[in-house]
Design brief:
- By secondary structure, the chain is α+β, with helices and mostly antiparallel strands.
- It has three domains: about 100 residues, Beta-Lactamase, CATH 3.30.450; about 110 residues, Signal transduction histidine kinase, dimerisation/phosphotransfer (DHp) domain (Helix Hairpins, Orthogonal Bundle), CATH 1.10.287; about 200 residues, Histidine kinase-like ATPase, C-terminal domain (Heat Shock Protein 90).
- A hairpin with a 4-residue loop joins strand 3 and strand 4.
- It is rod-shaped, with a radius of gyration of 51 Å.
């Protein structure tokens, strides 16, 4: 239970640290400077402290070695007057020698003597340390007695004055009956104190140096990062449409040059954007004006052409054929004019959605019936995959029918005489219609370009297929007006599929589509243009293209009448 209580704050703190590390260049540079300088100063401080400590110890050893050498020689001359170990004057003489040696060695030094091969507990010391056994290792005693020569070691011991470190020097004193082991115990209190003070000084100096480096790095980084942050913030405002935002220019250094260049770029962008907006506005106005101005003469020409077309049977064959061509081209011209007027309404923001409950099954069937003559001439069949029950959605039926008419008409024109499959499905929040053809397909990247105005896959003026290039762009605007999606998929030689997804009720937000964008047969074939998840965010997978189980597939050719 305690772990569950502590873990979330730790995780949140770690997430906050990671986020700050990713977002703040100043934090990263300051932290890296802190770590690098701290490591460098730490190594330097340890090295300096060790060198100082070693130097103090070397000085102590040299001084002690000289004292021990002189003291050993002097003790040898004093004790050689005793020729037998049983001499009763040996103890008093030894005590006098040890006292003199301790006095010459300095304050705090303990001097001890013990007969070789005797236990250290029998050693004589000055000053007297009572029952305390001097801390001398066996290796040191063996070196003194077997070599024999002077030797030293450093050990921590309590010689009646508390626990402290001692530099222990031992030297053999030759006697007529053997060797006397003479030991000096030099306390290292002063050296330890000086070394501690030096380490503290080095640590404090290193810490202050690291802190100074961090502060300098932070200030320098701030000087560099602050203009970059201002530039980023100004760029965000510019991208949001606030084209009058500029950076403040201070000084004449590189950062000032950056700010001046940024401002110049923003000014040029603002000028170009205003120019493009003006051109776009003039283009929209021109399109709208021309469309409206052409409507009146077109009506007059249409009335005259209808009269001529109605009387074509009484004309000569060549004149009758001309009347038919005139009627057909007027139909195309009127269709283009209608598309231009619709586009101008979208640009002006006058398009209004007239939504009402509508059965989409009926709309799909009506579109298929109306395009049956076109399908018959192209040698294609329109296959419908529709639910058995009505699919009711609050949509603008006229606009939805126009979308489907454009999609199915394009599929028939580019389907190269192969079937065109139209599938309708719905779920609890959306309805979708897919139009699948098996024609020439789309090149990579064209699935986005097909919705551009006046775009055609065959740009030549001698093309045999394709209309004005406005149908899909109008369909996209109709889908957006419903709050829906209109998407395309295609692969060269595998055909294409368009998907229209609309919410069941106006204002609802789409999160998924009942049908997949990439056809199931393209997925099974492993098309390189059919990734495992090519649908819009949230689209469900699996099943027959995600369609409900109550779909009934019918492969009926919509006849030629």
């Amino acid at each position: 239970m305690a772990r569950r209580t502590v873990l979330p704050p730790v995780v949140r703190a770690w997430a906050s640290v990671r986020r700050a590390w990713r977002l703040s260049l100043q934090l990263r540079i300051t932290t890296i400077t802190l770590l690098a300088s701290g490591a460098l100063v730490g190594v330097f401080g340890v090295t300096v402290a060790k060198r100082i400590t070693d130097q103090l110890l070397d000085d102590k050893i040299q001084h002690a070695s000289m004292l021990v050498a002189n003291g050993g020689d002097w003790a040898t001359g004093q004790l050689n007057t005793v020729t037998q170990i049983s001499d009763p004057g040996l103890d008093s003489l030894l005590e006098t020698v040890l006292a003199r040696l301790a006095q010459d060695a300095g304050e705090g030094v303990v001097v001890a003597a013990v007969q070789s091969h005797e236990p250290l507990s029998a050693a004589s010391t000055y000053p007297d340390i009572g029952d305390i056994t001097p801390p001398v290792s066996e290796e040191l005693r063996d070196t003194i007695t077997e070599k024999p020569q002077r030797a030293r070691q450093i050990r921590t011991a309590d010689l009646g004055r508390g626990e402290r470190a001692y530099l222990i020097f031992g030297t053999p004193v030759p006697m007529s009956w053997g060797y006397l082991e003479l030991y000096y115990f030099f306390p290292l209190d002063r050296e330890a104190k000086v070394a501690g003070q030096m380490r503290a000084t080095v640590a404090a100096t290193g810490g202050a140096l690291v802190l100074l480096l961090v502060v300098v790095a932070g200030l320098v980084t701030r000087l560099v990062v602050r203009p970059v942050r201002l530039a980023a913030r100004t760029a965000q405002r510019l991208s949001a449409g606030l084209l009058d935002q500029r950076m403040e220019v201070r000084g004449e250094d590189d950062l000032a040059l950056l700010a001046a260049s940024f401002n110049q770029m923003a000014t040029n962008l603002q000028r170009h954007i205003h120019r493009l907006e003006e051109m776009s506005r003039l283009q929209r106005r021109f399109t709208s004006d021309v469309s409206h101005e052409l409507r009146t003469p077109l009506t007059t020409v249409r009335m005259a052409a209808d009269l001529i077309f109605a009387e074509r049977d009484s004309f000569e064959p060549a004149v009758a054929r001309s009347a038919e061509l005139l009627q057909r081209e007027l139909d195309r011209f009127e269709s283009l004019l209608t598309d231009l007027l619709e586009i101008s309404r979208f640009d002006a923001g006058f398009a209004v959605l007239d939504a009402e409950p509508t059965d989409l099954v009926g709309i799909v069937r009506r579109v298929a019936d109306r395009l049956s003559p076109l399908a018959a001439r192209a040698g294609s069949e329109i296959q419908l995959v529709l639910p058995e029950h009505p699919v009711i959605a609050e949509v603008d039926g006229r606009r939805v029918e126009r979308i489907l008419r454009n999609l199915v008409g394009n599929a028939v024109e580019h389907g190269e005489g192969r079937p065109v499959r139209v599938t309708l499905a719905a779920d609890e929040g959306a309805v979708a219609v897919t139009v699948r053809d098996y024609g020439i397909g789309l090149q990579p990247g064209e699935e986005k370009m097909v919705f551009n105005r006046f775009w055609r896959s065959d740009p030549s003026r001698a093309r045999q297929t394709g209309g004005t290039g406005l149908g899909l762009s109008i369909s996209l605007e109709d889908a957006r007006l419903h709050g829906g999606w209109l998407e395309a998929w295609g692969a060269p030689g595998e055909g294409s599929q368009f998907r229209l997804t609309l919410p069941l009720r106006p204002g609802d937000r789409l999160i998924s589509s009942p049908l997949r964008l990439v056809p199931e047969d393209a997925r099974r074939a492993g098309s390189p243009d059919a990734p495992p998840d090519a649908d819009s965010p949230g689209t469900r997978g699996g099943g027959a293209a995600g369609a409900p189980s109550d779909l009934v597939e019918t492969a009926t050719e919509v006849g030629s009448g």
